[in-house]
Each structure stands twice: as C-alpha cells, then as structure tokens.
C-alpha cells in the first residue's frame, strides 16, 4: 500500500502530450533491450523487474542511451558511496523528525509532478543533528518513488523556517557533492523546479553554495519565495498541506505515511544491489556507452 495518489486522466493526458512520450508497446520493447544490455555488463546486477526498469526509462524521457548512463551511475554510486545507503530504524527516524523531515506529497501537480519536501523544525540541539541520516532517508525516498511510480517530474520544496547555521554548515562541500552525485546523477530524476520558502538571513550564502554543485539548467529553475502567495504561482493550493495555506491535507500525516512506507519497504531498501567495481571494465565512463552495451573510445579534438 502507498499513500501516493497516481495521476488522474487529466494528468495522464498532459503527460502523453509531452514530446518525448512513447506508447506502452515501445516502452516494453525498450525494457527488454535494457534487460539484455544489463546481462552484458560484468559489473552490473541483472535486473528482472520490468516495472522498475520501465519507471527508469520513463524518467529518462524514454531515451535508452540516457537510461544506460544513469543506471550505470545508479549502481556504481552505491558501491562508491556506501555511507549514503545505510540502514535506519523507526526510532531513529522519529527522533530525527524533531529537527526536520523529508517526505513526498500525496497529490501530483496538474502537470503530473511529485513534490519532494524538506522541512526544518525549531531545535537547539545542534550536536545531535544527523546529517548522514538525512542523506540516507532522502535517497531511500527517491528509491521508493522509483519503485512505486514512473518519475515524470519532481518539484523540490525546502521549508527553511527553522534552519540553523550549524545545520547548513554540516553540509560540507565533499558531502554535498557526493550526495548530489547519488541523487541527481544516479536517479532518473527530472527536477522541474526548486523552491525555497521562509528563507533565513544567510539565504544568499546557501543559494551560492548550492549552485556550485548543480547544472546551469537547475540553477535557472531555483526560486526563493518571501511569501506563500508567490509559491502558489508554481504549486497549486490543493497540492500543498494546510501548514502552507493549502487544502491538500496535513503535513504531519504526510510524514507519518512516509515513515510507514519506509518501514514497510525496509528489507527491500537494504537489499538493493550495487555494482561490483572489481569487475568494472577499465577506462569506462558512463558517457561512453553506446546503444549495444559496448564502450566507444572518445574522440577528442
């Protein structure tokens, strides 16, 4: 069971009208192709979950070349950065919510995008802020989304009302770079927009820091809102919880449902496979993959 509401007919029609959309029979062919390609990669696991692969291809705009690049990065990142894929208990998550939380909103936007929301809460206990647990939960939620639904698009919402400088400083350059490698580069994640609400006094420093690690495309999609009325221009009220002036439900209920979903899938999350780096072909990079599962030598002028 999941609390995430699937797209309705209107949202599905909107998605179908996107220029990259492919009919189901073509998607099924691409899934078969990707499964065959995976069997030729000595360092990657053989995946037989056709639904998961279909979700992956959809998030990559039905582009097989892109799908191969991202799926390579998906499994390699888990081997290179195991600290981001640790195990956690319900008690740990409940304790962490005293300082903030991460969750998906149940309703999609009219365009079929899913809201990924991070909130902060008032606390003076900076010594117990577990930045690595935050990273692990964020990635686990993306994993669950990929398992449960096609990733048509994500809108990232940060509520910084109670963020403290110590929390911000916990995200060192190395940690931030590796976290974004595991999220943006290693998931078929289509970031539509990034929204910051309730910005702190040091917001300019935070934005400048974040922009160091993302592409120009994402930089152009970052918005800082001084009021909720401004946010409503991008996210309708019926998608937002009541704490943000919306009619979409209660944020604490979202968080509890997200926690239940994480715990219900705990064994699945802990068993997610990773690449065997000892078997990875030498001198291979994800941007060198060709459509037949081989690697092409780059021509550099």
TrEMBL record:
Q: Which PROSITE patterns match?
A: CRAL_TRIO (PS50191)
Matching entries from InterPro entries are given as:
CRAL-TRIO_dom, CRAL-TRIO_dom_sf, CRAL/TRIO_N_dom_sf
Q: Which Pfam families match?
A: CRAL_TRIO
The protein's matches in SUPFAM superfamilies, at most eight in alphabetical order, are given as:
CRAL/TRIO domain, CRAL/TRIO N-terminal domain
Q: Which residues form the CRAL-TRIO domain?
A: 90-252
Q: Record's Gene3D superfamilies? A: CRAL-TRIO lipid binding domain
Gene Ontology MF terms in the entry: phosphatidylinositol bisphosphate binding
GO CC terms on record? membrane
Q: What is this protein called?
A: Alpha-tocopherol transfer protein-like isoform X1
């Amino acid at each position: 069971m999941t609390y995430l509401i699937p797209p309705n007919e209107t949202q599905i029609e909107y998605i179908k009208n996107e220029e990259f959309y492919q009919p189901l029979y073509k998607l099924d062919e691409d899934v078969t192709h990707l499964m065959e390609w995976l069997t030729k990669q000595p360092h990657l696991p053989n995946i037989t979950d056709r639904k998961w692969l279909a979700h992956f291809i959809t998030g990559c705009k039905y582009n097989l070349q892109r799908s191969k690049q991202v799926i390579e990065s998906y499994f390699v990142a888990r081997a290179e950065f195991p600290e981001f894929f640790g195990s956690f208990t319900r008690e740990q998550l409940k304790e962490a919510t005293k300082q903030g939380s991460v969750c998906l909103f149940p309703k999609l936007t009219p365009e079929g995008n899913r809201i990924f929301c991070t909130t902060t809460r008032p606390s003076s206990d900076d010594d117990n802020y577990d930045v690595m647990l935050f990273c692990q939960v964020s990635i686990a939620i993306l994993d669950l989304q990929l398992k449960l639904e096609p990733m048509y698009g994500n809108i990232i919402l940060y509520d910084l009302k109670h963020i403290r400088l110590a929390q911000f400083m916990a995200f060192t350059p190395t940690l931030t770079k590796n976290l974004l490698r595991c999220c943006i580069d290693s998931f078929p994640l289509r970031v539509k927009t990034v929204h910051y609400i309730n910005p702190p006094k040091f917001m300019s420093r935070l934005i400048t820091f974040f922009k160091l690690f993302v592409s120009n495309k994402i930089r152009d999609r970052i918005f800082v809102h001084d009021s909720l009325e401004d946010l409503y221009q991008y996210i309708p009220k019926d998608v937002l919880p009541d704490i943000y002036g919306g009619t979409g439900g209660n944020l604490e209920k979202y968080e509890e449902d997200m926690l239940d979903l994480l715990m219900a899938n705990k064994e699945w999350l802990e068993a997610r496979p990773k690449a065997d780096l000892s078997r990875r072909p030498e001198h291979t990079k994800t941007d060198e993959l060709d459509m037949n599962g081989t690697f092409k030598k780059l021509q550099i002028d």
